[in-house]
Write a structure and sequence with these properties.
Layout lengths: L2 H19 L13 H14 L28 H32 L2 H26 L12 H11 L2 H13 L5 E8 L4 E8 L9 E8 L6 H4 L3 H8 L5 H11 L2
Helix pairs in contact: 1-2, 1-4, 3-4, 5-9
This protein binds manganese (III) ion (MN3).
The site of manganese (III) ion (MN3) has 7 residues, from helix 3.
Length: 255
């Protein structure tokens, strides 16, 4: 195992633990940690959960790298604004509150309360991290089309063709029951891609999965423009997928 891969596996387990439980993985990056480890951690965060945390270790709502109207006509400005500034913000605040209340509950030794806030941390942590990824998976420039390089080759190897992959991913996203996500993830154990349907923000994961590409199919992500036509939203969404961003994540993980 190369040093890079070993470093990645150590780092990714922290990310996964955070994604699974909503615990603050940043707390592991103590000031005593070697500089290299901190740089590696920062790189993982930048690539896998962009903008999720600030320099002081506090969860924050990431600024988007494009305007709310930049993804028109595929995703409308009002939906983007409400989705980012209200829905995502609520998950950030929910995660902050859950961690604070969990600490109080631990101090008081109230196990039922700990369990309650653990569930809240899972839901809100899943929401925060997946939305950070979701915004980064989209771009107004150079978006759409197909991936290139290693990711393109891996998709072809596993799915036969990009079109076959896209059809399978679209079907997964369209048919999520109720609220959830279509996710293309990197499955660590098998060093391969896998498509998942995420229910809510935190259910049906295989856990040892790093999300690379995610589409939010909660109604708040599309209802203003598409009403109940989720399939139309999913189809339009491919036009704003930033394959460079997705490809960078894949190449960082896949050696
Ligand atoms: Mn959402």
């Amino acid at each position: 195992m190369t040093a890079n891969r070993r470093d990645f596996l150590v780092g990714s387990s922290a990310i996964l633990a955070a994604a699974a439980s909503g615990l603050a993985f940043a707390q592991e990056a103590t000031p005593e940690a070697p500089a290299g480890a901190l740089q590696g951690h920062a790189k993982l965060v930048t690539q896998l959960v962009p903008g999720a945390i600030d320099d002081s270790g506090k969860w924050v709502l990431p600024a988007l790298r494009y305007d709310y109207n930049a993804l028109e006509p595929h995703i409308d400005a009002q939906t983007m604004e409400i989705h980012h500034s209200r829905h995502h913000a609520a998950y950030v605040n929910g995660l902050i509150e859950a961690e604070a209340r969990m600490a109080d509950a631990r101090a008081s030794g109230d196990n039922a309360l700990i369990e309650y806030w653990t569930r809240k941390a899972s839901f809100n942590g899943g929401g925060h991290f997946l939305h950070c990824l979701f915004w980064d998976c989209m771009s107004p420039e150079g978006a759409g089309g197909e991936p290139r390089g290693q990711l393109a080759r891996q998709i072809e190897k596993q799915f036969g063709s990009f079109q076959a992959f896209r059809d399978q991913f679209s079907a997964a996203a369209r048919t999520v029951e109720g609220s959830g996500w279509g996710i293309l993830g990197y499955q660590i154990a098998g060093a391969r891609l896998t498509i998942l349907q995420g229910l809510n923000q935190n259910l049906l994961s295989q856990w040892a999965i790093i999300p690379l590409l995610a589409i939010d199919v909660w109604e708040h992500a599309y209802y203003l423009k598409y009403q109940n036509r989720r399939a139309d939203y999913v189809q339009a969404w491919w036009n704003v997928v930033d394959w460079k961003s997705v490809g960078r994540r894949f190449e960082m993980l896949h050696h």
